[in-house]
Amino acid sequence: MKPILTLVAALLVVGSAAHASEVYKEKDAKGNTVYTDRPAALPAEKLNVKTQQTDVVAAQQRSDEPAKGNAAAQQASAAQQAADQKKAAELTAEDRAKRCADARARYESYMNARRLYEPGATEGERRYLSSEEIDSARENAKKLMDEFCAGQ
After folding, report:
1. Sign of the C-alpha dihedral, residues 20, 23, 27, 33?
2. Contacts of 38 (CB under 8 A, 6+ apart)
3. Which residue ranges make up each domain of the chain?
4. What is the CA radius of gyration of the chain?
5. Which of 63, 135, 141 is nearest to 99 (CA)?
6. Is residue 96 classed as helix, strand or coil in its secondary structure?
7. Rounded to an integer, what distance in angstroms lies between the CA atom of residue 43 and that of residue 24?
8. How far is CA 9 from CA 3, 13, 15, 54, 95, in A?
9. pLDDT of the residue at 9
C-alpha cells in the first residue's frame, strides 16, 4: 500500500510541474491581457516559458544584503537618537538653571518687599496682600526655589 501511495504522489508532482510550465496569453472581454495556465478559449497564445531551479544560497544572500544595509541604518539612527538625547539633557540642565535663578530672584524680592500686591482687573489697579497672605506667598516662593534649585 505504501509503495502505491508513493507512486501516486510522485505522479501528481510530475504532472503538476509539467502543467505549471504551460502559460497562455489571451484577451478578456474588456480587452485586458490575461496570463493563465487555463485559457478560457482555445485561440489563446501559448507562451514558451523557461523555468529553472532556484539557487537557495544565492537567494539567501540576496535577501541578507538589504538586512545588512538596514543594520547600518539602525546604527546610524541609534547614534542620532543618542545625540538628540544628550542635547535634550543639556537643554534641560540649562532650563533648570534658568528656573532656579528665576525662583531665587522671586524669593529674594518677596523677602525684601515690605508690601506685596496682586494686579487687579484693570491696569494700575492693585490688591495689597494681608500679613497672612504675604507669609504664605513667601513660603510658596521658598518651596519653589528649593524645588528648582535642588542639587545645584
Report:
1. positive
2. 24
3. 21-51
4. 41
5. 141
6. helix
7. 10
8. 10, 6, 10, 22, 75
9. 55
